[in-house]
Amino acid sequence: MCFSMMAAKMSVQTPSLRAARALFLAMCGVVAAGVLVPGAALAQSAAPSSAQSPAGSEIELLTIATASGAHEFKVEVMRTDEQRARGLMHRRYMPADRGMLFDFKSEQPVMMWMRNTYIPLDMVFIRRDGTVINVAENTEPLSDRTIASAAPAFSVLEVNAGVARKIGLKPGDRVRHPLFGR
Hints:
With 182 residues, the chain is α+β, with helices and mostly antiparallel strands.
């Protein structure tokens, strides 16, 4: 309700109104993310580039090694509770070569969900050493159904749905990124 009133008042977009609207939308995103139970949205980097993601984090390089070869992705790394809670919520598009890597700081049981996430995703659960534990393919957008790691996970990589199948990703494959000491 608050959002619709604000949007109606900002139908004319002057530079100052655009800035105010952007701030308002950012604040709404933080409030929406605050609804999450800590750990429920449980949810890299060769040389960090100077490019910034929509979440404000740097874009970093990550490589997945499968039987079909090495596959590079540009990922946003979610390192804080706030970043992990927000994840890919409210986004409508992610380029094919992109992904999001969630850093949980220690191996632990991880449960993800797709609340307010419009993009179907493949979720890759990863051990501390970069070994793939399990893959949840083609997750259902906007679902509150929990998607769990098969064993304690250090990280989760989200990529567009279909990527895991396309590159032949399976448990035991390796992810290379500085988060995993590579």
